[in-house]
Amino acid sequence: xxxxxxxxxxxxxxxxxxxxxxxxxxxxxxxxxxxxxxxxxxxxxxxxxxxxxxxxxxxxxxxxxxxxxxxxxxxxxxxxxxxxxxxxxxxxxxxxxxxxxxxxxxxxxxxxxxxxxxxxxxxxxxxxxxxxxxxxxxxxxxxxxxxxxxxxxxxxxxxxxxxxxxxxxxxxxxxxxxxxxxxxxxxxxxxxxxxxxxxxxxxxxxxxxxxxxxxxxxxxxxxxxxxxxxxxxxxxxxxxxxxxxxxxxxxxxxxxxxxxxxxxxxxxxxxxxxxxxxxxxxxxxxxxxxxxxxxxxxxxxx
Length: 302
Known about the structure:
It contains eight helices and nine strands. By secondary structure, the chain is of the alpha+beta class. Strands 1-2-3-4-5 form a five-stranded mixed beta sheet, with no helix packed on it. Strand 1 and strand 2 form a beta hairpin. The termini are far apart. The model has no long low-confidence stretch (mean pLDDT 87).
């Protein structure tokens, strides 16, 4: 993918309706300079949909964000939030990211980043943050949505409700790389790039398969899941084997060991093949392919 050299217009403060013929639902409703979500229509008289890839992000936003019900009783607010969530409709594969398309209107560069990619896809990056339970301003709605290996290093002991500036930047870069990977654009370096590299290799090896990043299974998440192979893939950094101070020390290590064991038990319960890669592995197409093939061959013979 190549980004356009020319400057693209900023999203107007009040939002805008745009026709973009390179999308399956070409009428795009931009939510405004201070919003992050976009909605889509097949035609001007049709229903308005959000892309299915943003479903969890919207659920997090509606469940946790302050959306104007402060003057009402808490119980009523909860009902209104649920009613709002129930009215939203979704369609698979209709957004710019899913279609590897350039938005016609862009948010511009964020305070946390200065890349051209961020200036174009910044809203999609922020939506991805919401999927992980964190607002664009760094407020933590629900830490349980964060990938397991990121919870301890991102959330400091002194402030469990908001990310500090460095943690906000780290999470933003992580989310940016996920969006970059989805649209076929090169990654930028950051702490969790090895997991993304493994994801890219798996997608390259199985281009016609449904490869899911951060696959939800019960109350946990698997790093990578290949649906057609019924295969779960976990990447384990040093923090899964060693005591690391800034990642929760000994207690953090014990929690990760407990979660890893729980993931293995859940995969066994659902008859899902589970394979591991670690920080000691020098990731390459050949290594990943051979390990997966050997594991699947072994599992079939058992």
